[in-house]
What we know:
Strand order of the largest sheet: 2-5-8-1-9
Oligomer: single chain
Number of helices: 15
Distance between the termini: 16 Å
Order of helices and strands: HHEHEHEHHEHEHEEEHEHHHHHH
Amino acid sequence: MSGTTGPAAREAGDDGARPGAALGRPSGGVPRRDGAAGGGPGSPEEVRRGLESVGYLVDEGLAIACFLALTLHRPVFCEGDAGVGKTSLAGALAQLLGAPLIRLQCYEGIDASQALYDWDFPRQLLHLRAAEAAGITDAERLEAELYDRRFLIERPLLQALRTGPSVLLVDEVDRADDEFEAFLLELLSDYSVTVPELGTLRAESPPVVVLTSNRTREVHDALKRRCLYHWFDHPSFARELAIVRSRLPGVSARLAEQVTALVQALRAEELMKPPGVAETIDWAEALDALGATEVDAELAVATLGSVLKYREDAERARTLDLSSVLAARAAGTGV
């Protein structure tokens, strides 16, 4: 298994800890090999421990990818099924580094103006009217004032370039079209952008970039070559249970173990949408909210809506012998 992860246990700062403290440097700084601010961490193992300290469990492959991303300023391209922790990686890195998380959600038809920058036309128009009322007629002066940075609306990509350090999440890049991919590739090549009215804006400190894809279509090789690639598998039973326990420490150990076993069994079936780690957490949380400290087959079937999102999958699950899965887990012979 190349890599398995779980969502970050908390949003940055929720536990009262100082963001960035996990790698032993001043808050807000990017860790360097020697522990000072300004570069990358000392080793992949240090990255692994740091991510685990903020509730995100990684294997060796992903720890190495994150280490190289921080050291070489290379984007990480995360591909895999929905719900396996790809998006949460960016949040965990932001929490670890004490840096802001800037998210660009991709969709069909997204273009550069929606992702990079735009001009605040209503404010520019008001400025023109105010200038006219004040009797200002110098066209060159007015044009220079209109295209001042105060009228520039920074979209996520430009925000990431101008906020250093930061973590940029380009989520579901497979939903965007080829033209946007080409634009993104150019931007990630030198972390700069040219605004015709203002000149070239370059990142003083390149953001840590995480791109995710659910593989609804193939992303072009040119973009992948620019990145460090990591495939996210569904986790093993032991790792998934550890993720659930980390994310939901208040849930009974028996309930967490049973839910994890049931989800692992469901993934072995021919489902339209196999449940991800996110659904495992949702199911355990729902059962805990119902006051359950353990689950039986009847309760599992009644709460399938927390883990399966297609009618056909729920019908398939109802035909399974969930009692035998729970019995095998209780006997220590399950998955």
